[in-house]
Amino acid sequence: MPELPEVETVVRSIAPLVGRRIVGAEFRCLRVLRGGDPDEMAAQVSGKRIARVERYGKFILIHLAPSGYLMVHLGMTGKLLLGGPSGKHTHAVLTLSRGVLLYDDSRQFGRLQYFDSVPQRLQELGPEPLEVSFEDFFARMKGRKTSIKALLLNQNFVRGVGNIYADESLFRAGIHPQAMAGRLKRERARRLYGAVREVLREAIDAGGSSISDYVDAEGRRGWFQIQHRVYGREGEPCSKCRSPIRRVVVAQRSSHFCAKCQRR
DNA sequence: ATCGGTACCTGCACGC
DNA sequence: TGCGTGCAGGTACCGA
Predict the structure, then answer these.
(1) Torsion of CA A252, A129, A62, A125, to 10 degrees
(2) Among the listed residues A198, A138, A174, A194, the one whose alpha carbon sits nearest the alpha carbon of residue A262
(3) Is A3 noted as a catalytic residue in this protein?
(4) What is the helix (H) or strand (E) element at residue A113, kind and residue range?
(5) CA of A1 and C1' of B12: distance in angstroms?
(6) Model confidence pTM above 0.85
(7) Is A187 helix (H, G, I), strand (E, B) or coil?
(8) C-alpha A103: how far from its chain's center?
(9) How far is the CA of A254 from the C1' of B11 (A)?
(10) Alpha-carbon distance A182 to A163, whole Å?
């Protein structure tokens, strides 16, 4: 479900929780805790205040005061919801000094973990695509022997790009998803850099893409999906040249592209 | 260090 | 109506 623009939208929607206290916590699903103990986690967060909510690519880091961090990743189907009824896929309930925050995740690919300090995984991630310089972006592509699609999906290259925005960015840049990353010339890399940033900004402005069930913490859907030019449009005419959009598997993921407009 | 392949879950749309 | 198949915004882990 959620890539950088969706996670950014979720983070913005839970920003009002800053300053509130976690008065009670219940964790129900072992899988999303990734080895954490439910009762221990409840004890670690209970009584603490939400000091700050931050996004690292697709990860959410909730700073607790006086100490500690709750790291949240939404996986494919994770949702943070302000209030609302808890259902069969509600895996965590945080009772706040005002309101309730639920974690819901039908496929359980997401995760909720407590850390005493900023988790190592977050430090290993690549830079934010909206903050990285072109020189750094280009330097990171050098010598890579994988497809540009796979590289864009690699969170240690840049953080936050997923399947939708990789395909949309490659279309806008006119680059074939299977082009070898390390072979892209400076000029084409420049176009890709611009395309990634443009797509992400537009998607954030649209509140993300709601393909099936993505919603922010207030239950609002995004509408960037209506601006998708290739993702989910297999067989439809390309918006530039009218030739049919194709779908192939690259890096084990569906990749949507125009064979005429996107060159290797 | 880097790369490709696999595993992890549930739900939904589809064809029969 | 039910059943099998394929597909889905994700990452982690394995061996080569």
Answers:
(1) 60
(2) A174
(3) yes
(4) strand A111-115
(5) 15
(6) yes
(7) helix
(8) 16
(9) 19
(10) 20
The answer to whether A161 and A3 have CB atoms below 8 angstroms apart is: yes
Question: What pLDDT does A212 receive?
Answer: 87
Nucleotides of B under 7 A from a protein CB: 2-12
Torsion of CA A106, A251, A202, A189, to 10 degrees: 160
- What pLDDT is recorded for position A154? 98
Scanning every strand, the nucleotide with its C1' closest to A213's CA turns out to be C9
Strand nucleotide closest to residue A77 (CA to C1')? C9
Q: What is the pLDDT of residues A76-88, one digit of tens each?
A: 999 999 998 999 9
The pLDDT score that the predictor gives to residue A1 is 67
Residues of chain A with pLDDT under 70: 1
**For A158-206, what is each residue's pLDDT tens digit?**
999 999 999 999 999 999 999 999 999 999 999 999 999 999 999 999 9
Gap from A11 CA to C7 C1', in Å? 28
Give the CA distances from residue A12 to residues A52, A56, A163, in Å, rounded to whole numbers and listed in that order.
11, 13, 22
The encoded tokens of residue A29 equal 């699903």
Q: Is A253 a catalytic residue?
A: yes
CA of A126, C1' of C8: distance in angstroms: 25
- Measured distance CA(A23)–CA(A93) in Å, rounded: 11
Which residue among the candidates A55, A58, A140, A149 is catalytic per the annotation? A58
